[in-house]
Amino acid sequence: MTDRDELPSNWGRWGDDDELGTLNLITDEVRERAAREVRTGRSVSLAVPIQPAPVFSGPFAPQTAEESPVRQIMAYTGSPAPAHADVMLFTNHHTLSTHLDALSHIVQDGQVYPGRPVGESVTMGGVVHGSTTAFAAGIVTRGVLLDLGADGPVPVDRAITSQDLDAAEERFGVRVESGDALVVRFGWMETRYRGNPMPGMAIDAARWMHDRGVSVYAGDLGDMYPQRPDVPSAMHGVALPRMGMPLIDAVDADELAAVCAELGRYSFMFVAAPPRIHGMTGVPVNPIAVF
Amino acid sequence: MTDRDELPSNWGRWGDDDELGTLNLITDEVRERAAREVRTGRSVSLAVPIQPAPVFSGPFAPQTAEESPVRQIMAYTGSPAPAHADVMLFTNHHTLSTHLDALSHIVQDGQVYPGRPVGESVTMGGVVHGSTTAFAAGIVTRGVLLDLGADGPVPVDRAITSQDLDAAEERFGVRVESGDALVVRFGWMETRYRGNPMPGMAIDAARWMHDRGVSVYAGDLGDMYPQRPDVPSAMHGVALPRMGMPLIDAVDADELAAVCAELGRYSFMFVAAPPRIHGMTGVPVNPIAVF
Amino acid sequence: MTDRDELPSNWGRWGDDDELGTLNLITDEVRERAAREVRTGRSVSLAVPIQPAPVFSGPFAPQTAEESPVRQIMAYTGSPAPAHADVMLFTNHHTLSTHLDALSHIVQDGQVYPGRPVGESVTMGGVVHGSTTAFAAGIVTRGVLLDLGADGPVPVDRAITSQDLDAAEERFGVRVESGDALVVRFGWMETRYRGNPMPGMAIDAARWMHDRGVSVYAGDLGDMYPQRPDVPSAMHGVALPRMGMPLIDAVDADELAAVCAELGRYSFMFVAAPPRIHGMTGVPVNPIAVF
Amino acid sequence: MTDRDELPSNWGRWGDDDELGTLNLITDEVRERAAREVRTGRSVSLAVPIQPAPVFSGPFAPQTAEESPVRQIMAYTGSPAPAHADVMLFTNHHTLSTHLDALSHIVQDGQVYPGRPVGESVTMGGVVHGSTTAFAAGIVTRGVLLDLGADGPVPVDRAITSQDLDAAEERFGVRVESGDALVVRFGWMETRYRGNPMPGMAIDAARWMHDRGVSVYAGDLGDMYPQRPDVPSAMHGVALPRMGMPLIDAVDADELAAVCAELGRYSFMFVAAPPRIHGMTGVPVNPIAVF
Fold it and tell me: What are phi and psi of D289, to 5 degrees?
């Protein structure tokens, strides 16, 4: 199963210079399907709230602080202050920040999607190929939630397979179609913790996503932790770098699951529009499900 | 006209502790109206692309650089690198970044919306009231474009009034309703320049937005520059701090205008979902119009 | 005692545009006196070690961290890495960093040294007068240690007066002369804690420094905490802004005290050469005593 | 000459775990020799002034800016402001900043001084061996200036050899002894420019420094540029990683040369006391020559 030639891959599928990956699957037809999901305009955020950690000057700083993806510096604007402004130091790949991974984020076999040597995509001065530029116009497509944690958190040592995903579709009366954004809830928002063991997707599940044509993956969890040393991780080791499928890490799908259950439907319009910053390896995002 | 008691204001309208301002106007009914605009799922970004300025180490740095709201630092992840990551220093209120102003961004008469002393809303460690927390769940409403620059850029010394806005509605066959996001195009994307004179809204136009119940303002321009010394500026001096109307600065409405013209309609679903960062004075955003 | 007209002040003493303050007292004669202190070349650092707090990308970050004046970002230099480099976010006025306060750091009665309106010295873009530029060439003078904590930490509610300083001189057989750097040890390195009550200097002690012609003050403590509401603090409220005496905050004088006791002398050459950064409000420094 | 076994090296000389490198050569005897150089207390800074680049909020930012090693953010301290403070983003290895390179800054043959695999010295979270911690207490030793540019800038294609250094010693009547800091002036302050060809040291000159026991190198230039592809660069490729000799990059020796010429002596006490920051790859420094 870990023979690399057999791993699902889109290298070359949309050309040797492609930067969109599975976003190519979001066609006009898919967008129309997404549009048909919009009925009441009710919306749900899938982002984890970030509480910035202040950068304090002077004798007021505490000696320890919660870690945060954002260090906030309140800026001087004059005295008295006519306005309030701030500057932030932002860590793009942080487990406490809901963020979009660019396709060149992960290296596999010395290459990044779609099979380029690292040095041709990434430089000291930023990412020149396969960066967040691909997300510039925003991602609008149909979204589907598979709530694997509907009966309680997925057990820690559980590797989710294609059968689990098929079963979830059946249970929730929904089917993932080509171009859809797949939102997965493991039910781990409360208990996930950096460095602790966590369940995740098997490579077989990544292949399922490949076969179905998932355009974006957004989950409260993704890869099992700790990683098996002999197998690339399904999402960050296969889906992102080989399938060219953007990942949204650190999603909070709890409210979404509650709304889907309340409405009795598990599909919606999915809008992910991160700040339009080119050339990055990742970018914070606030994905929105619109019903 | 500049008697402060006569300026449009929502101080107290939704309570002394309100943090949503005119976002309160986005009711379920407004969302349904927005939903009805979605037909094909076609979407347009209203954000200006940001090209980060790299923070270079070593002998490779140039001696001058374009200014940018984003300073990007490529991060070390090991050698050889298994992944690529980065950290950014982000300037929240920057004229080259499309961003949402929080309600406490601007001080008027020593107070911030909805009439609180500055010290009760803003601290050295961040904003405790009237911050970007208000935008946490994203803003989904109906959007309307008034393309004031359809026949060419609005002249530099022109103060847009309620009559101009009425005329634009008539011309484009659209009417701004309570709860709508108002997108305005002056036709200045190419020519606007920091420090140069620019046209903008008259206070009379802000009062029109107040009367109509605009929930959010998004424009390629907003306030006239230079500012008249005896009059508060219409958008940053009245609409934001007194009406409690969030502003999206530095919008690019050119592509939107082209699409509206092509489709022959000037209304759409408007989605603004900035990174879910609490306690800030502003935050970058990539507003999306969905047709 | 708190009549402001009676507070020691050097406003105007070296002209209305002076940026050096009491550094003006370091004459060639003072430097020669300093030179005579150098005999063995033995040196002692007066700086507190700073352990940077890393800015981690990826799943490895802890959830809490020690606060630090320095946030370190390891930089990507290529893969494999030919070199290692880093970037740091540095908080100039931090109680865990030994740093030099520039003369315009503190405002008194709406003015900064030597009596300028704030807006003429400090802007949104940096400090244009009374900044760290004054320290550009380094400070080389004679240093004297008064070890007030030789018999144990100075009690928490103790305000050090001129009599205490006179007594210390007598005890340690040393006399502070015009142009000297004064190093004071309260014996609080182990116990000082942000937000906890601490002893410090009385205004009478600042006047003593004024009369003696101290050029720089470097102490493990300086001002009493909490501050009395009706009296400006002696060091940050009087010495820095009125006397124009640069302060080195957060000094570690423990090793210095041990060496002085061992050698039986309390004077030395004092070298403070912070990074040569212009236009700042403060700058980290590693003061060195050379014997 | 480029047979790596023949390159000068101190790997193992002071043990497999050494972090001081050639700073080990600064003995008590060397310090006494340094002390004897101090006569008048006159001092000269060898640091290039840094003009910070402000991080501007609001409509006031220019569209281009000079590059700078320092990005300064003026901090909010309240309104009206009782104090002024700032935060800086500092690039440690920058050609416009006089800085000390830590021993693990450069990798040679997959190893860093004194022959450790990279992964044992450098991590994503900082440097655990061979970092700036070695400079914590400051460097105090005798300094010697060899003014190679006394008759005009060294020609661009000139590789300085041991013979040039011998000749300079003879001309200036000084001799580099074991433990000395070597300051070299190429006369390139005005004309050096990143990316332009520059003269520098031959490996033969690094061997000369090795034989003489130089403890620290401080030059306005160091390595030739562009580098010859088949030969490691003398200072950053041999002296730093193999000899374990700390380098001070981007030194301004012009004023020092003038003072040496005026006084007719080319030796002095050399004090380099960078901010006491542990675990970094480099740190800004303001080296001081005391006469």
Answer: -100, 125
Amino acid at the residue D226:
P
Residue B53: pLDDT above 50? yes
pLDDT over 90 for what percent of chain B? 89
Q: What is the DSSP code string of A38-73?
A: -SS--EEE-BPPB-PEE---BTT--SEEE--SEEEE
Residue B1 has pLDDT above 50, yes or no: no
Question: What is the end-to-end Cα distance of chain A in Å, rounded?
Answer: 39
Tens digit of pLDDT for each residue in B88-132? Answer: 999 999 989 999 999 999 999 999 999 999 999 999 999 999 999
Cα–Cα distance, C17 to B257 (Å, whole number): 55
Residue A247's H or E segment, with its range, is: strand A247-249
Q: Which of C56, C71, C87 is the best substitution to test chain B (most B C-beta atoms within 10 A)?
A: C87
Report the Cα B100 to chain-centroid distance in Å: 5
| Whole-number CA gyration radius for chain C | 20
- Least confidently predicted of A92-101, A121-130, B57-66: B57-66
For residue C81, list chain B residues with Cβ-Cβ distance below 8 A.
76, 79-81
Instruction: Tell me the three-class secondary structure of chain D, residue by residue.
Output: CCCHHHCCCCCECCECCCCCHHHHHCCHHHHHHHHCCCCCCCEEECECCECCEECCCECCCCCEEECCCEEEEEECCCCCCCECEEEEEEECCECCCCEEECCCCECECCEECCCEEHHHHEECCEECCCCHHHHCCCEEEEEEEEECCCCCCCCCCCEECHHHHHHHHHHHCCCCCCCCEEEEECCCCCCCCCCCCECEECHHHHHHHHHHCCCEEEECCCCCECCCCCCCCHHHHHHCCCCCCCEEECECCHHHHHHHHHHCCCEEEEEECCCCECCCCEEECCCEEEC
Instruction: Using the predicted structure, report yes or no on whether residue A3 has a pLDDT greater than 70.
Output: no
CA distances from D47 to B30, B113, D284, D286 (A): 63, 48, 9, 5
ipTM: 0.96
Query: Is the model's pLDDT at A228 over the cut of 90?
Result: no
Residues of chain A with pLDDT > 90: what percent? 89
* Residues from chain C contacting residue D112 (CB–CB below 8 Å): 84
Residue D181 pairs in a beta bridge with D143, D216
Euclidean distance between CA atoms D240 and C82, whole angstroms = 13
Counting one residue from chain B and one from chain C, the pairs whose CB atoms sit within 8 A come to: 49
Determine which helix (DSSP H) or strand (DSSP E) holds C290, and give its type and residue range.
strand C288-290
pLDDT at A1: 43
The rounded distance, in Å, linking the Cα atoms of C240 and C112 is 9
Chains that touch D (3 or more CB pairs under 8 A): A, B, C
Q: What digits encode the pLDDT tens for the residues B160-209?
A: 999 999 999 999 999 999 999 999 999 999 877 667 899 999 999 999 99
d(CA D132, CA A157): 43
What lies within 8 Å, CB to CB, of D269 at 6+ separation is C38, C41, C290, D34, D35, D37, D38, D140, D141, D142, D143, D289, D290, D291
Determine, for residues C79 and B80 on separate chains, whether the beta-carbon distance falls below 8 Å. Answer: yes
Minimal CA separation from A290 to chain D, in Å: 33
pTM over 0.80: yes
Candidate from B73, B79, B81 with C-beta closest to C87: B73
Which amino acid appears at position B230 of this protein?
A: D
Query: Which residue of chain A has the CA closest to B42?
Result: A31
**Domains, in order of start, for chain C:** 4-48+98-290 (3.50.30.50), 53-90 (no CATH)
Contact D57 B118 (CB under 8 A): no
Q: What integer pLDDT is reported at residue D160 of this predicted model? A: 98
Taking an 8 Å cut-off on Cβ atoms, the answer to whether C35 and D31 are in contact is no
DSSP string of B24-49? GG--HHHHHHHHTT-SS--EEE-BPP
